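hi! just following up on the protien thing from before. the input was this:
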Amino acid sequence: MRRTVDWLAVDGGGARVREYRMTTVLLSLGSNLQPQRYLHAAVQELRAHFGDIVVSPAYLTPSVGFDGPDFLNNGVLLRTDMPLEVLDLWLHALEDRHGRDRSGPRFSNRTLDVDVVFYGDRIVEGPGHLRIPRPELRHAFVLKPLADIAPAFVDPVSGRTLDALWRAHPQHGVGFATVALEPATSP
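and the predicted 3d structure came back as:
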C-alpha cells in the first residue's frame, strides 16, 4: 500500500496547515519465554503509542533454527508517520523494555521479538539487519497471522496479495493452535 494523506489540517481561511502522511506497517511478533505475558504487553504498548491497530490471533508454532520451547506468534497492522528507521529503533526499545537479550545466538529463546515485515510498499536491502520485506515471510508463523489481518495487502516484491501467498504456502490448510494472550502482571 502506498503512503496516503491520512489527515489534513486547515486553518479558518481554508489554507493547508500541515499534511500527515501515514504508512501502513505490518509487524510480526513472537515470544517463547512467558509468551502470553510478553505478547500481551507488547500489543498494549503498540496500541497506546499508535492508537487503532489490528491484531491477529496468536498461534503456537515450533521454534525454528534451534531447539527450544514453542513460540507464540502474531501479527499487527498499524499506521504511522514515523520514518522506518525511527520505527525500527522504537521497536528495538520496546523489545529491550521487555527483557530482550541480544547477547546470545541469533536463533535463541526470546521474551519478545518484533520485526517490521512490511513498511508500505518500500523495499529495503542494505547494510545491517533491516530488510523489508522480511525474508521470514516465507515461514508460516509470519505469513499466516499477516494474511489473517491484511489479506489484500500486496507484497511489493512478488506483486501478490498476502492471501494469495498464504494460499500457495505448503502449510496452508494445516490447523494451527491459537492461544489467548494474558494481561501482563508484575514479575
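Confidence is low (pLDDT under 50) at residues 1-8.
The chain is about 25% helix and 25% strand.
cheers
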